[in-house]
Amino acid sequence: MTDAEADKALEELDRLLNDPDVRMDPARVWTLAARLSAPVMRDAPVPASR
After folding, report:
1. pLDDT score of 21 more than 70
2. The whole model's pTM is what?
């Protein structure tokens, strides 16, 4: 996830949780939370093939 994607996800999550005019969508909240908490794989080593 790029920084721009993370910022967009955080903004959406903030709206879902804090804006009284936006209908709560628990499934979307959990999806966004999972995406934001996932480890960054950008610098992970590539596993050796067997």
Report:
1. yes
2. 0.71
